[in-house]
Amino acid sequence: MELTAKQLATILHGTVEGDPEAVVKSFAKIEHGRPGQLSFYANPKYEQYVYTSKASVLLVNNDFQPREKVTPTMVRVENSYTAVAELLKYVADQRKTNKRHRGRCHVAWSARLGSRVYVGDFAWIGPKCKVGDNTKIYENVYVGEGTRIGKDCVIYPGVRIYPGMVIGDRVILHANCVIGSDGFGNAPQPDGSWQKIEHLGNVVIGNDVEIGANTTVDRAEMESTVIADGVKIDNLCQIAHNVQIGENTAIAAECGIAGSAVIGKNCILAGQVGVVGHIKIADNTTVCAKSAVIGNVRKSGEVLFGIPAIDQKTYLKAYAKFKQAAQE
Fold it and tell me: How many helices (H) and strands (E) does the chain have?
């Protein structure tokens, strides 16, 4: 990346205050900015760094009024936080390739690839697969028979997609995630052993979903495990068989959701949250880090905390009493 302040202003629909030819080649936090770098100021807590930053260009809001001298060239935009997100996307898009698949990959003769699909070395795309336009399938990816992948997707190295999965448009699957492995289904036998329950369903992933590295989404026993449009799942999460996750729900790292749980729309599960199976969580629920949800959450918009998870305010009041008792 190499952009002038003038070019940045054009891309972000902003205005330049300072040297329009100031050049940036990389990004940095405002407290770490150096010559040749771009930083941004959005949070008032960081205003002190505006006046000490050595970055070449600083993105600021239109209404920002400096109280001291600012050394970097400022590019004023409507919302600097949104603008830097747009700029990161712009740079990422510029780096993407439009290569056709290489000779050292396997694409079954019955697979159908759209236009401008990239397939990296040693990737394997099985029979009767369909891959949409502009999708990138990187090195060492396995795509099982009959899987459908939409357009503008990015499948990073080492991803394993079992046969028969359905993946929407603009989906991002990070390295080594697994889509469609068997769920943990075993029937206890009279002699104390376990009999495996075969899983014949699949996973259906909607549009604009992002799934982090080393996360596993299990296939359903009979129907579908469903990840709805706009869901964001972090690294190292476990989504069990028959789970349903509603639109635009965000799930942070190391969460585990047990089989047949139904998570509503626009929920937030913070890091290391556990959810037991066969329960429902209402829309707009927030579950704080390290909490465990063991029963239905029927009221929309609740904030839960603790093991087992209860109303956050109630938990904090109880915690204050626990702490007081421990000190006596």
Answer: 4, 39
DSSP H stretches of helix in 141-262: none
The 10s digit of each residue's pLDDT in 83-131 is 999 998 888 877 665 556 566 899 999 999 999 999 999 999 999 999 9
- Show the tokens assigned to 71: 């050394």
**What are the catalytic residues?**
241
* Extents of the domains making up the chain: 3-95, 106-315
> How do residues 267-315 score in pLDDT, each as one tens digit?
999 999 999 999 999 999 999 999 999 999 999 999 999 999 999 999 9
Query: Could you tell me whether strands 303-305 and 310-311 are parallel, antiparallel, or unpaired per DSSP bridges?
Result: antiparallel
Give the Cα separation of 249 and 238 in Å (integer): 15
For residues 296 and 151, what is the distance between their CA atoms, to the nearest angstrom?
36
Class of domain 3-95: alpha beta
The pTM score is: 0.81
Q: Are 244 and 207 in contact (CB under 8 A)?
A: no
Q: Which residues of 275-302 are buried (b: 16+ CB within 10 A; e: fewer)?
A: bbeebebbbbbbbbeebbbeeebeeeeb
Residues 6+ away with beta carbon under 8 Å from 282: 264, 297, 298, 299, 300, 301, 302
Distances from the Cα of 90 to the Cα of 13, 98, 322, angstroms: 13, 16, 51
For the domain made up of 106-315, give the CATH fold. UDP N-Acetylglucosamine Acyltransferase; domain 1 (2.160.10)
